[in-house]
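Residues determine shape. We examine one folded chain.
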Amino acid sequence: MQQLLKLPLIFFFIASVVGVLLRWHQVYPVEGFVYPYWLHAHSHLMFLGWVFNTLVVNVVVQFLPDTPARRYTKIIWLLNALVLGMLISFPLQGYGVYSIIISTLHTVVAVFFIVHFFLATRHAAFPEVQYMKVAFSFFVLSAAGPFTLGALMANGLGQTPAYHLAVYYYLHFQYNGVFLFGVLALFYRLLRQREVVIQEMLAQRGKILLIISCLLTYALSALWLQPSVVVYALGLAGALLQIVAFVFMYRSVYQDEIKLLQKFSKPARIFFVLAAISLIIKLVLQLVSVVPVVAQLAFDVRFYVIAYLHLVLIGVVSFFLFGWYHEQGYLKNVPRVILYLLILAFVASETAMILVGLISLDVIHAIILFSSVAMSVAIGVYAARQKEA
């Protein structure tokens, strides 16, 4: 199982290298490089090879410790083999026959694992288990997105409003469903390991409110269509409910913040604080996106979309997972300079994308390229510093 714990970070490193290729192509165009195909590979590696992979492996290790590991080992290896298949097929054909077959098989195997997890934990009432069940439920729900995309593209409906809504459907329920609930599940698990008292009733209320808000805030993804006022109202209600949900979750573990942070190692504290800051920015951005001008701007300016996606995927989710890896003892001593390199590169990249229109595109692309290289180096060091079995 220790070998399986290494795979998510390895895929994260590979995904970061693909990210560097994408940025390189924007500065120095490469003959024969099909940008959309490689972008699909990058996103699938990040979502399925890094985040979902981390959740699945840690579910077996942390949530099902009494279950024989061999029962799940083959499933996890198969999931990783299919992710590797996506790394090969997407750059070659984008959404083609082979990539769709491989993606479909991954979803089927993942659902098979999820069903087993639900059955194995049907009597467990701990918040971490309940939140992970919600995360996996949203994984199943989000799966409709890629299948819809494939059908739309096969019928020549790419780049239509329906196509964009399908893309945002998948992204929304992955980011706000799978990733967010998965991270919160691991967070509650970590607090229980550190013997922090959890007010389970408040955690349960936070979970219910966050589920409702996740469903409602999909409306925010459709505001660029300038829909009826009802859609705006649903989006606003969801954004507000999301904030209330996190207030409940905060109260469920509330104690002196300094004492709480002291329970973690210094690298983990840094990552957790950055993840919390990124989360607060995310909540604020979703709230202000209800304003029509902001919603349209977010759709029209691609850099803003990418900056937001990276804020959540790297700033909230990946930074938390790095802290989790530190706290679980999965890593050897990582030089502190690598941690700071990763953070600095992330901040530089986000800042460059936000400043679009204020500085030249050439400068923005150069900053993002160098930041991507720096982040890839840092992630590579983390992947190399994983402990042996």
About this structure: The chain has a mean pLDDT of 91. The CA atoms of residues 129 and 185 lie 7 Å apart.
